Amino acid sequence: MIRIKNKIISEKHPCFIIAEAGVNHNGSLKLAKKLVDEAKKTGADAVKFQTFKTEELVTKNAKQAKYQEKNSPAKSQYEMLKKIELSESEFEDLFDYCKRKKIIFLSTPFDFKSAVFLYKLGVPAFKIGSGDLTNIPLLRQIAKYNKPIILSTGMSTLEDVKGAIDAIYSSGNKKLILLHCTSNYPAEYKDVNLRAMSTLRKKFNVPVGYSDHTKGIEVAIAAVSLGECVIEKHLTLDKNLTGPDHKSSLEPIELKKMIKS
Q1: Half-sphere exposure (CA, 13 Å, Cβ side) for 259?
Q2: Strand partners, 150
Q3: pLDDT at 39
């Protein structure tokens, strides 16, 4: 059993729903706050963003992924990320805004400086994306903060997952939740493999959830029916907005229906 603020995460409690706003604010604090408003209205337990410093994350000539090329006019990863990066002061504003709206603020750090910033900000838990599952130095740093960790496992082997768990547990932090994830945007139904969640649960004896990148709400509902205790689903104000993740996200009315279901 793991507690994130006033929410208990276990198979015996209601599923913890994370509305993944991510970078769907397109670099606008005003849009970010609207995403908070909509996440609250849908009934989500938490709204999650992505915190990074572009210079710490990518080189200036790093290419975009194919799905990003389709949905972003930028010519490189660096250009795309720089346009949608929020400043520390904007995140401080957003953190306080979530407090006022009574919804849990979460964010994924993608570099060491961002992890330190989020810890000092007072996040109640850390979400770590699949791309950093093998970033052992970052995992160890975050684990030392002794906050609950939600770790996505997309693109990983069981050996990779064990290495990440060993790194986190070596700090004495055992407050870990694993999320099964298919790292494709959007993910096809045939590639979802929900039974992998059972494998993770049995092998590592930790709470397990699902980070869903499929279109629609059916797969997330199926995951909960299999006993998963966390669902993370992308939220956008409008799927037609320009940006890397809007098309693989749910609009508020869809997320509300998913949560009700």
Answers
A1: 23
A2: 127, 177
A3: 98
Predicted TM-score (pTM) above 0.85 = yes
**Longest CA span, the chain:** 48
Say if CB 185 and CB 158 are below 8 A apart. Answer: no
The full DSSP string for the chain is -EEETTEEESTTSPPEEEEEEETTTTT-HHHHHHHHHHHHHHT-SEEEEEE--HHHH--TTPPPPHHHHHH---SSHHHHHHHTPPPHHHHHHHHHHHHHHT-EEEEEE-SHHHHHHHHHHT-SSEEE-GGGTT-HHHHHHHHTTT--EEEE-TT--HHHHHHHHHHHHTTT---EEEEEE---SSBPGGG--TTHHHHHHHHH-S-EEEEE-BSSSHHHHHHHHTT--EEEEEB-S-TTSSSSSGGGSB-HHHHHHHHH-
> What digits encode the pLDDT tens for the residues 27-50?
999 999 999 999 999 999 999 999
